Amino acid sequence: MDTKSRILETAFKMFLQKGFDGVSLNEIIKESDITTGGFYYHFDSKDTLLIEVINRYIFNYFDLVIEQIRDFEGTHKEKLKTVILLIVGDDSTINTTTQLVESAEKIDYRTLHLLLFEGVQKYDVIGEHYTEFYYNLFDFIKDVIDDGKDKGVLRPDIDSNKYSLLIQTAMVGTVIMWIGMPAMPLGERMESNLDILWDLMKNKT
Amino acid sequence: MDTKSRILETAFKMFLQKGFDGVSLNEIIKESDITTGGFYYHFDSKDTLLIEVINRYIFNYFDLVIEQIRDFEGTHKEKLKTVILLIVGDDSTINTTTQLVESAEKIDYRTLHLLLFEGVQKYDVIGEHYTEFYYNLFDFIKDVIDDGKDKGVLRPDIDSNKYSLLIQTAMVGTVIMWIGMPAMPLGERMESNLDILWDLMKNKT
DNA sequence: GCAAATATACAGAACATTCGCTATGTTTAT
DNA sequence: ATAAACATAGCGAATGTTCTGTATATTTGC
Questions:
Q1: A166 and B130 in contact by Cβ < 8 A?
Q2: By the number of CB atoms within 10 A of the CB, which of A116, A183, A190, B73 ranks highest?
Q3: Residue A57 in contact with residue A51, Cβ under 8 Å?
């Protein structure tokens, strides 16, 4: 791995552990086995480092998940469940093809969402990217619902816009509550919530 | 207002504007019209200042809302809606009795939730308080649902535990998406989501 | 009753440390 | 030889905190 990638990956890992403000540039430099000069050759500032880290390790991953799942074979419900569980980072769902870092270490998705959140608040570029991603996810969910309506799996009278937003909201809410209350089992809660919402939309005939 | 209260209130306002890490102690001291010595007479550190601020201005308010709303007269749905809209800080719902600060200035609830979130991540004490509050809110919602079931307003077969959690999750999710995408109208989205969920639980007979 | 003793509520300077970053020097690869 | 890829030293500003000092209020001893 080249130097820049090494910096990015160690920075990513350290950000996950202590947050962006929580880790200093010197710590990153030490951990990356480089020096100040080496760092500033590859990056303009600590800020741009964060932006690059988030783009590379979070948004790229998110986009990949949505892309991969479009050709996913399975029921509508499975499709929806899988994409959401992959994005929130449920352990039992994540497989090797969608791994975030090259090394085998596991990522703590709780802190990942926190880091993303920190970035969104700090830098407009990340905020815009964040919004864009959620529009993509919204479209994806809406497509699944519309297709489900066409195929007769879902009730024809439901408003796919409203329900897509609700599902997305429930997803975000589950993650955040999981962050605030780590004792909560993420996958279990997410599945329970999705089950309820799905039953709500399901064609009863 | 005495000195300590003055420090607390100005600190609260400044934290809302720029976040905890975003505002320095010197700025707070200047804005509070005191000096370093004065500050350290009343507080042990900047950390304890944040903890006191959050307890005083956020948790106290949350607890007050739940307490006040218990004797609230209205339908089950109204009760649920009101408590949630008060907690998330919907403009149209907040009245004078539940005002956060003594001065007439309006609070930006987006940054309030952010500040709380920042505190939860930083200090265990706040995290525990946060968890405790959500248990309280959960109990409140569950009571409303159970009472609704008793009164025949809601379907008797729904699992009040599961549904309470879902509602709470949707609430948190709505707030967070609102924070990340400020263009979203909070009250409107929250009401739409609650309406869907309520219809789901409503007795159809 | 009244001074001595003590507690309270601050003021202001100084401290040690850390921060992100720059300027300049050295090595390495082609 | 020349530019890319680093290494090293250190700057300047900002940080939270501690220290000592002071004015006022309250309590205590006789």
A1: no
A2: A190
A3: no
CATH number of A51-201: 1.10.357.10
Cα gap A145→A135, rounded to integer Å = 15
Q: List the domain boundaries for chain B.
A: 3-201
- Note the pLDDT of residue B38: 93
d(CA B176, CA B188): 14
CB contact under 8 A, A180 and B19: no
Using a CB-CB cut-off of 8 Å, the residues of chain A touching B178 are none
pLDDT digits (tens, 9 = 90+) for B19-66: 999 999 999 999 999 999 999 999 999 999 999 999 999 999 999 999
pLDDT at A96: 46
* A36: closest CA of chain B, how far (Å): 24
Q: How many CB atoms lie within 10 A of CB B150?
A: 10
pLDDT at A153: 95
Judged by C1' against the alpha carbon of A32, the nearest nucleotide is: D6
* A3 CA vs C28 C1’ separation (Å): 14
A16 and chain B in contact, CB less than 8 A:
no
Give the torsion through C-alpha atoms of A93, A99, A100, A103, to 10 deg: 130
Rounded distance between C-alpha atoms, residue A173 and residue A181, angstroms: 12
Protein residue minimizing CA–C1' distance to C25: A37
Our measurement of CA B30 to C1' D22, in angstroms, reads: 21
Average pLDDT by stretches of 10, chain A with 205 residues: 93 94 95 95 96 95 90 91 90 59 70 91 93 95 96 95 96 92 89 94 83
Given the candidates 1.10.357.10, 3.40.50.1100, 2.40.50.40, 3.55.50.30, the CATH classification of the domain at B3-201 is 1.10.357.10
Contacts of B185 (CB under 8 A, 6+ apart): none
pLDDT in tens, B100-158: 555 556 788 888 999 999 999 899 999 999 999 999 999 999 999 999 999 999 999 99
| DSSP H or E segment with residue B78 | helix B76-88
What is the reported pTM?
A: 0.89
